[in-house]
From TrEMBL:
This is Sigma-70 family RNA polymerase sigma factor. Residues 29-95 form the RNA polymerase sigma-70 region domain. Residues 124-175 form the RNA polymerase sigma factor 70 region 4 type domain. InterPro entries: RNA_pol_sigma-70-like, RNA_pol_sigma-70_dom, RNA_pol_sigma70_r2, RNA_pol_sigma70_r4_t2, RNA_pol_sigma_r2, RNA_pol_sigma_r3/r4-like, WH-like_DNA-bd_sf.
């Protein structure tokens, strides 16, 4: 009886092949994980142009670091860390001056008026997230918007789960305060 292969197993095999110099394996990893990396970078930096730069730099860093990747975590967790660190470095180099803009998706069966209200509410929350302190914004993006577990976020940020929970609590309180203050 053979065990089913998971996406994590496939990523591990691709990472091993890429580390051995197989460019097609690395290309597959890039295609598979770039959308997630871009979302994270965009939500942290607040700028599509900066997010694209962060993702490009993250992939360059990943390519260079791949031979040293010890597979102590999943490939996707490692890539979250690489892109998060890159986005944080980008913020340190240049503070964002443009709030995060992301259009709300069309929802089937709703009126145009409801879609406008929904889009405004989503935009207000995303703008509020972009105004959070980076120490609050990053864990909130990874946990609530990317859906990572507490353990995964703690590993990416290299903090303990109790410290992460504390950061997330402060982030949620600050976010709620900002949304309530909205004009």
């Amino acid at each position: 009886m053979t065990a089913k292969s998971t996406p994590a197993d496939a990523d591990t095999a691709l990472a091993e092949a890429a580390a051995a110099g197989h460019h097609a394996a690395f290309d597959t990893l890039v295609r598979r994980h770039t959308p997630m990396m871009f979302r994270v970078a965009l939500r942290i930096t607040g700028s599509p142009a900066e997010a694209e730069d962060v993702v490009q730099e993250a992939w360059l860093s990943a390519w260079r670091s791949l031979p040293a990747f010890r597979q102590e975590s999943r490939v996707s967790t490692w890539l979250y860390r690489v892109v998060t660190n890159g986005a944080l470095a980008q913020l340190r180099r240049h503070r964002p001056t443009v709030p995060l803009h992301e259009a709300a998706g069309e929802t089937a069966g709703t009126t145009p008026e409801r879609q406008v209200v929904d889009a405004e509410q989503v935009d207000a929350v995303l703008r509020a997230i972009a105004r959070l302190d980076v120490s609050q914004r990053v864990p909130l993006v990874l946990r609530e918007l990317e859906g990572l577990s507490y353990e995964e976020v703690a590993e990416i940020l290299e903090v303990g789960v109790p410290a992460l929970r504390s950061r997330l609590r402060r982030a949620r309180v600050a976010l709620l305060g900002q949304v309530r203050e909205r004009p």
